[in-house]
Q: What sequence folds into this?
């Protein structure tokens, strides 16, 4: 007899799937009480993320109309169209979106996952951290005990755990730090750029210690890691963004949003140049987003929170497969 196929069954148990539903209902009630509008935006776009660390799924449209034969991309985040809504006058908005990232599969990654993303007008990244802490604490109440949340600057976490200043250290100093930590250095690490070394040290030496028993917000990132955040003209300039960790797991990534269309175009082009230097294909820029920024993005802060990871922590699971009905290998 042929082997019995059991992969048709969900990998998550029914208690966990009910927990997902309960947490989604709580999220919607949280934002409804604050008059934050739920929106939906396309999953498929003619533009794609230019960040060289993210990879989009691509497909070709074969139907009628002017886009026949055009390559389209599944979004890695709903950020770009949500900012178009903000520029068009939506007010504060949120979305519970299915998003897609090629090449990301593992214990804490699935190529298709659920992202909670929201934008608050008049907030900076510090005020948004308050709201993120409020929501996550509410979602985990009675499920995961938490001490008071803490906030540490990017400089503080490097000084505390590695004794180096990430904003002043050279590549040689960071490489020596990695060697002292006993890290296996990936081939091709550059000798003229500090950011890959900072990422290596952060992910391997610092992140496992963050958020132990409490929410830990890390803020004020190097300017080169500002992404879509505003720069503050300190010495050196700093990106006004934050990340949230709990039990060593990165849960959220937030920004005091950049509204300068020319600066955003420059960053996109810089990222595409980095892609080409790494042998990757440059991505088409989102001209609709850039046009919206040129009209005017209201002053705001935004954040994306990994919902599946939150469910994983709330349920006590150790891998995403345990909180997804049908993960990638059962899809």
A:
């Amino acid at each position: 007899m042929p082997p019995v196929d059991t992969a048709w069954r969900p990998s998550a148990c029914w208690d966990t799937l009910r927990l997902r539903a309960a947490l989604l209902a709580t999220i919607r009630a949280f934002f409804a009480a604050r008059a934050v509008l739920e929106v939906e935006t396309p999953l498929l776009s003619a533009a794609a993320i230019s960040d060289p660390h993210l990879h989009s799924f691509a497909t070709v449209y074969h139907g009628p109309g002017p886009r026949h034969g055009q390559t389209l991309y599944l979004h890695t985040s709903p950020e770009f169209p949500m900012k178009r809504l903000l520029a068009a006058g939506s007010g504060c908005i949120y979305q519970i979106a299915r998003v897609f990232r090629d090449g990301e599969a593992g214990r804490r990654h699935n190529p298709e996952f659920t992202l909670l993303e929201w934008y608050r007008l008049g907030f900076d990244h510090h005020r948004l951290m308050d709201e993120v802490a409020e929501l996550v604490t509410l979602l985990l109440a009675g499920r995961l005990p938490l001490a008071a949340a803490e906030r540490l600057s990017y400089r503080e976490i490097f000084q505390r755990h590695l004794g180096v200043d990430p904003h002043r250290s050279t590549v040689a100093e960071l490489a020596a730090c990695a060697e002292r930590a006993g890290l296996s250095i990936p081939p091709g690490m550059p000798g003229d750029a500090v950011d890959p070394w900072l990422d290596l040290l952060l992910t391997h030496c610092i992140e496992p210690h963050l958020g132990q028993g409490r929410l830990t917000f890390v803020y004020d990132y190097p300017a080169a890691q500002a992404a879509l955040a505003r720069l503050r003209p300190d010495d050196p300039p700093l990106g006004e963004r934050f990340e949230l960790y709990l039990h060593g797991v990165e849960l959220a990534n937030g920004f005091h949003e950049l509204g300068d269309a020319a600066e955003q175009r420059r960053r996109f082009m810089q990222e595409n140049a980095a892609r080409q230097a790494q042998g990757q294909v440059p991505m088409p820029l989102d001209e609709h987003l850039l046009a919206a920024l040129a009209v005017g993005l209201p002053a705001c802060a935004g954040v994306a929170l990994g919902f599946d990871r939150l469910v994983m922590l709330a349920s006590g699971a150790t891998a995403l497969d345990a909180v997804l009905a049908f993960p990638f290998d059962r899809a």
